[in-house]
Amino acid sequence: MKASRQRLAGLIRKEFLQVLRDPSSLAIAFVMPVFLLLLFGYGVSLDAKHVPVGLVVEHNSPESREFTAGFEHSEYFQTHYYHDMRTAQQALRAKQINAIVHLQADFDRQLSGGEPAAIQVILDGVDANNARLLNGYIQGVWQNWLNSRAERRGQRPSTAVQLQPRIWYNSALRSRNFLVPGLIAVIMTLIGALLTALVVAREWERGTLEALIATPVSVREILLGKLIPYYLLGMGGMLLAIAMAVWLFQVPLLGSLWVLLVCGSLFMLVALGMGLLISIAAKNQFVAGQIAIIVTFLPAFILSGFLFNIDSMPAAVQAFTYLVAARYFVAILQTVFLAGNIWAIIIPNALALLLMAMIFLGLALWRAPCRLE
After folding, report:
1. Where are the bilayer-spanning segments (predicted)?
2. Model pLDDT for residues 233-247, shown as the tens digit of each residue
3. Roughly what angle, to the nearest 10 degrees, separates helices 257-281 and 343-371?
4. What is the DSSP string of 82-139?
5. CATH number corresponding to 51-152
6. In the chain, where the domains are located
């Protein structure tokens, strides 16, 4: 037993010395999460702000000026005025604006006569999601103007029911608060898989793994000697990513950091287990890297719920997402960051990660003797 511990300690020391001599593992663990978080954190946003909108006002009046002021004073719009619809439509076709709001010449007459006053809204529907958001923003400006106008006249609001929205968990409505926690899961999936896949594949190429097998060490000790150092590196990268999310991107952390670290440990074991399986299947660094990107990063990016709502996917794809480990960690991260320690979500997803870690590490241990001969 003592000899086994000494051999394991020697293997761990060997891995750390190799990391110091070839710092590519440090780059994967610490440089890559910083780069990817900066790239995706600042580059990916679901917020539609400062959207160029064309305003066509056929008759300039106090009522029309008051209405268009709602667009000018909103951070969601960047207003452009046009004298006629033809010019505005040309700007829309040229992608200079994303929508047209048209007030016809009889707008004031309809209002003063008590008739329903309508506005024309033309949207660029190429980006359907952006068009839906923009349509909602324009309707909000219209409804706010109607309500304020009714209050000034001592009239009842135009709608019988007044909504008073109350936003839970992300009251600022910042898409970055939702995206950055999911990004941590996606990025750590790739990093965890690359740490073991590329490093072990490198040893296959250099022939050092065969020399290691010639020593009196067991396959279990070899796998543990690979897992422990890169687990520590991966967790260091995850701590760095969490610190960036809280202090750089200002994402609130409402839950416990310890809960996040425990669940992150389970997820890191899953990612490292996938990397070990990849390294067993591919003894070439280039092939191992390609497999890691295809098998781990792409499913985590598309099918984890980080960016695309899983409930909106076809039933067959939804069923497939249960095989993606990042799905469970994304749910934990977004819950712990934005809602707190909601155990009804944390515990089932953590158990799923524990099961997947046991499966991947067990498969790696089972397959290793067949390839490490």
Report:
1. 26-44, 178-201, 228-249, 256-281, 287-308, 320-339, 345-366
2. 889 999 999 999 999
3. 20
4. ESSHHHHHHHHHTTS-SEEEEE-TTHHHHHHTTPPP--EEEE--SSHHHHHHHHHHHH
5. 3.40.1710.10
6. 12-45+174-371, 51-152
